[in-house]
Structure formats: structure tokens, C-alpha cells
Automatic annotation (TrEMBL):
Occurrences of domain Phosphatidate phosphatase APP1 catalytic (ranges): 148-298
Protein name: DUF2183 domain-containing protein
A Gene Ontology molecular function term of the record: phosphatidate phosphatase activity
Superkingdom, taxonomy of origin: Bacteria
InterPro entries: APP1_cat, HAD_sf, Mg2+_PAP
Amino acid sequence: MALSDIVHKAERTINNYNVRRSAARGWLPQVTAYKGYGSEETVHVLGRVLYGDPAAPENEAWAQRGYRQFFTVQAPGIPVRVTAGEASATTHSTAQGYVDVQLHGHGLTPGWHDVTIEVLADPNAGIPTDQPPTTAEVLIVGDDQDAGIVSDIDDTVLITWLPRAMTAAWNSWVKRTNTRQPVPGMARFYEKLREDHPNAPVIYLSTGAWNTFDTLETFLEHNGLPKGPMLLTDWGPTPTGLFRSGKEHKRVQLRNLFIAFPQIKWILVGDDGQHDPLTYGDAAEEHPDRVRAIAIRNLTPGEQLLSHGSLTPLVDERDSALGPLPFIQGADGNKLLEAYRAREF
């Protein structure tokens, strides 16, 4: 048996024990809603079902110790109903508790809308009938919208020094969540991009964990960054490995966005501490009609060292197959803004 199989089985055994323990304490499956996105025809609704104490007050997640985000009890196989406008569907949460549903014919107009995710009654599982539905937000992008922004989070708008294990653990688990530092100038840079491309959707694509969604959402609002859906990952083991591939996650999600919005040409924003230049360059080479430009934040040598153990970028962005595609880079949002003004796209 492979190590990943052992870890995966251990995770499942521990969560099953926690599910039984939570149910015995009177805890119930509750929906954590994420921000979704969609076109005028199809909407993608995201959420997660976790066990929680129905009598507990709302957590002040913004100022808590980061490790508290990761102590959750996922609720697998829970029946839920998802409703968006005129469309509705019934499904079950996945083995990790996730709800990921696409609804067609919703009838929603472009802009932000509320949709609902409702845990359905299940007497065999001890789920009562009086639980109110949870509201989730979705961004509907108009069919006439021709520009959008895809943004990384870690070390692009939020200083985290991922994926260096010890530093990442300290930043994510020990520091209080309201002490996270933004990359200077990124709010101004995005404000200018959206000024030149009105109503451009901003989609945050990150290898960060879904457990951090609430604090990341508050971080964006607190630091004046655009509101937008987030496409994050689950940090648990997979059937083939101990960790999910961050590069593959970004490649798949980019392709999904290209399919969902065939009329949009995207501005891809990331940093050179991981694989963003290569991932974005490959996307531009494979789909040259879908990428408008690439912007890369350059980490300092110290940040590079903390990020991946080397003083130089993990991938040299200049080696990416960008061709004539507009490409800018800078040490922070202020430098990116200067470069953008010199070469607007």
C-alpha cells in the first residue's frame, strides 16, 4: 500500500470518528457558502457542508489564530438542494463535504446575485427539517463582456511566502488572520485595469486551501481589492499522492474559465515565486485568442529564498512562450501600474 493510500485512509477514519462525535454532541451539517460565477446561461455554485454547533455564535474569523480555520469536520454524503433564480437541483456533498453544482437556465441578469444551498432533512442521519437555507453569492458575467482578470493570491496580492513549508505554516496557522500584509499597490493596479475594462470580472485562482476562504474574502475587502469568486483547493491527500498539484489545479481552472466564457480575453496576474509564468505562458500558447496579457509580480531575492529555497525565480518568466502577447512585470502593484501605463492592453 502506497504512503498516499495510508494517509488517505487515516484522514477518512479520523473524519468518520469526528462525524460520529459531532452528531452525538448535537452538532448538525451546516453549509459554508463560497462565491460562484456563471454566464447568462449557466451558473457554477460552490460551497461546503461541515458539522457545526447550531447554538454557537458567529466566529470572529478575521482576528483569530490561523490554525482555527483548519479544524473542521467535513460532512460527506449530505443531501442538499441548490437554487439559483429559476433553476434548482438536488445533489449530495462529496467525500470532503464539497458542493459543486452547475445549473442551466437560471434566468439571472449580469451582476451579483444571491443563490441558496439548503441541507435537506434526513431522519436516518438525524438532520431536522427546520434548517434555513444558506445564501451564497454568484457573479453572472454578461455575454457582451470581452475582458476579465484572473489573479493569483499568495505573494501576488497577499504576502505569504508559499509554498515554503515552515514559513507557510507560520503565516497560515499561527499569525492572527488580520495581520496578513497586502502586496503594495495591487489595489491601485486592479482599479486601473477595471477602469479601462469596465465590469471586468476578477477571478482569484490560488492553490490556497478552501478553509481560508472567509479570511481571504475579508482580507480582499479590508485592503480595497476587487470582489470576486475564488477558486481554491483542498489540501488533503489524493488517491495518487500526498498533495494535490497546484500547477494542475490552475491549468484545469483556467481551461474551465475559457470554456465558460468563450467571448472573454483574460489578463492573467501572478508572481514568479511558483509556476505562474510557465502556467500562464502555456495557456497563452495553447489558447492565444483567450489571453489578453500577462502581468507578473517579481519577488525579491529574500522572498524567492523563503518561497522555494533559491535566490532566483523558480521559472524565468522570459522563457515562457509569450510571443507577441503583452507582458509586464514589476516588484509590486505600483511598478506593475507604471509598466501598464507605458503599455496599456
